[in-house]
């Protein structure tokens, strides 16, 4: 049977080695260890860059709800009166009133490098000494959802950085995928799921992006497309300065509600057929919807052209995998694919399962033939 298992879970995290350890006066726990960026190291092993959502065990006390925030080289606890907030979701709270949605978090995310064997079957090492935590004001509520691309001899890692200033995309670079340098902000407010292509196109860096908003304009009646979040494209001369591409990328298809929302998943990799990209589609259901993984092949010379795409999901949420962790579940129906690596006749695919744990799946290359 092909491999499909959880390789890293909240129970595998040693919070005594967390960047927050001993730096806030409150007890924390791992809400999730999930959405891992992935690449292959020089030694042949796989590296996961795991998002650790470290949360307050008792965010509500003394008539207030508390948020963890980094600022000026230290972590702080902010107390908000319960009368001012909506606390229906234990992961976050919503400020009441105002003309737009304002959130704060009861957790703070940081990135933990986890080294796996070459097939992703087991953990080889956990590199706490190379964890990535907030270091800039625009990261004060955390660093989320790494995606790693190798372009030539350079590794580029995009992350979401969260703060009151902006919800932006930041870039890290590395020569070995273990020691990273923060290059700063590359995409501004509320642009998520940035994925750098693993190779140049026409001498330029390319990336998939996903700008968010509350307003979208309608396609004409009978269009094959549905208005809403889509996967856009940008180009860059150096991997740091990005210009949106004039043509659209992958758009939600009107033929299926499974892509009512969509966004990027894995950095596109070049195959004989073109650029293979795995992405997520969301079917409206319950609070967050049902997240599944789909795939497309993009033209090698113009990635705005989709050569082939499939409406049948490649990966579905797998409740059987999280059954042993059911006491820790706070979401279901979510698989969020974030990394891919070549392994000969198959790909190793990394995903976040239920915003809780890291899932590794082997997918035969013949699936994409």
Automatic annotation (TrEMBL):
Domain of life (superkingdom): Bacteria
Pfam families in UniProt: Glyco_hydro_130 (PF04041)
SUPFAM superfamilies given in the database record: Arabinanase/levansucrase/invertase (SSF75005)
UniProt keyword Transferase present: yes
Keyword Transferase applies: yes
Signal peptide region: none
Keyword annotations: Glycosyltransferase, Transferase
Family: Belongs to the glycosyl hydrolase 130 family.
Protein name per its UniProtKB record: Glycosidase
């Amino acid at each position: 049977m092909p491999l499909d298992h959880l390789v890293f879970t909240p129970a595998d995290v040693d919070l005594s080695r967390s960047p927050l350890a001993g730096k806030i006066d409150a007890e924390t726990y791992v809400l999730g260890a999930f959405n891992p960026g992935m690449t292959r190291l020089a030694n042949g092993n796989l590296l996961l860059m795991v998002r650790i959502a470290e949360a307050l065990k008792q965010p509500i006390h003394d008539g207030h709800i508390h948020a963890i925030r980094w600022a000026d080289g230290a972590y702080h606890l902010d107390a908000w009166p319960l009368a001012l907030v909506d606390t229906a979701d234990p992961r976050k709270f919503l400020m009441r009133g105002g003309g737009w949605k304002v959130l704060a978090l009861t957790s703070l995310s940081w990135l933990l490098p986890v080294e796996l064997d070459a097939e992703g079957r087991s953990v080889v090492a956990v590199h706490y000494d190379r964890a990535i935590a907030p270091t800039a004001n625009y990261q004060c509520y955390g660093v989320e959802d790494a995606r790693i691309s190798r372009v030539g001899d350079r590794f580029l890692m995009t992350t979401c950085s969260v703060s009151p200033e902006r919800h932006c995309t930041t870039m890290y670079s590395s020569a070995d995928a273990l020691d990273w340098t923060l290059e700063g902000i590359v995409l501004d407010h509320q642009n998520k799921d940035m994925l750098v292509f693993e190779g140049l196109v026409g001498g330029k860096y390319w990336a998939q992006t996903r700008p968010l908003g509350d307003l979208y304009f309608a396609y004409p009646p009978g269009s094959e497309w549905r208005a809403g979040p889509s996967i856009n494209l940008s180009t860059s001369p150096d991997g740091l300065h990005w210009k949106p591409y004039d043509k659209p990328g992958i758009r939600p298809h009107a033929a299926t509600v499974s892509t009512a929302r969509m966004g990027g998943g894995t950095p596109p990799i070049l195959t004989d057929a073109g650029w293979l990209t795995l992405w997520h589609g969301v079917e409206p259901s319950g609070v967050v919807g049902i997240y599944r993984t789909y795939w497309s092949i993009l033209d090698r010379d113009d990635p705005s052209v989709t050569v082939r795409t499939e409406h049948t999901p490649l990966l579905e949420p797998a409740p059987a995998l999280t059954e042993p962790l059911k006491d820790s579940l706070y979401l279901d129906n979510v698989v969020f694919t974030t990394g891919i690596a070549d392994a000969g006749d198959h790909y190793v695919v990394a995903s976040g399962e239920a915003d809780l744990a890291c899932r590794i799946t082997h997918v035969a290359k013949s699936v994409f033939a």
